[in-house]
Design goal:
The chain is an alpha/beta fold and 216 residues long. It contains 8 helices and 8 strands; from the N terminus they run βαβαβαβαββαβαβαα. It starts with a strand and ends with a helix.
Length: 216
């Protein structure tokens, strides 16, 4: 099973963002994870289209863009044009999820849905066949460095069973509280992609941390 790492630049030093991207380029990471927050759906504001566009100019890994925003449909085309390879929307913000996923795929990029900690994976039963990836939040979205929510393990197991049955090519991504211990358990239970921000960029050697996390 694939074991992939997506460092989140939300935890990088924005005074040296180019250097952080270069670290990811030179590492064993598989994606650059971009957390876009609007201050409405989540209680924080991060960055938007202009920053993603600049990141895409120097990133050598695909951009995994996580839209923690209301009305994401308005911004799918702009973020695709800014360089996104994967766009993740939240189940909780999409009134017509099937239409939104279709809109993302029409742009020729991969489509992903994120579930907040309180949202059961069962809500994806009727859409899972259409998805390239599902992102499970293992903390409440909006801020980095939070404590891992233990119930995430059960959600990974349940989601893995659903995916293996209906869409084996779909990836499971987990974001929040990822470290060597939680990372190993998540991979063991069926996750494919780990998002790590503070754990990577707060370490003394981010490239080494990425390599170790990938091989736990």
């Amino acid at each position: 099973m694939k074991r992939l790492i997506a460092p989140s630049i939300l935890a990088a030093d924005f005074n040296n963002l180019g250097n952080a991207i270069q670290i990811i380029n030179e590492s064993e990471a598989d994606f650059v994870h971009c957390d876009v927050m609007d201050g409405l759906f989540v209680p924080n504001i991060s960055f938007g289209i202009p920053v993603v566009k600049q990141v895409s100019k120097i990133a050598k890994k695909p951009l995994d863009v996580h839209l923690m925003i209301v009305n994401p449909d308005k911004y799918i085309v702009p973020f695709k044009e800014a360089g996104a390879s994967v766009i993740t929307v939240h189940y909780e913000t999409c009134d017509h999820l099937h239409r939104t996923i279709g809109h993302i795929k029409e742009q020729g990029i991969k489509a992903s849905v994120c579930l907040n900690p309180h949202t059961p994976v069962s809500v994806l039963e009727d859409i899972i066949i259409e998805l390239d990836m599902v992102l499970l939040m293992s903390v409440n979205p909006g801020f980095g460095g939070q404590k891992f929510i233990e119930n995430t393990y059960k959600k990974v197991v349940d989601l893995r069973a659903m995916i293996d049955n209906k869409n084996p090519d779909c990836l499971i991504e987990v974001d929040g509280g990822v470290n060597y211990e939680t990372g190993k358990s998540l991979f063991d239970k069926g996750a494919n992609v780990l998002v790590a921000g503070s754990f990577v960029f707060g370490s003394n050697n981010p490239k080494e941390t990425i390599a170790k996390l990938k091989s736990v």
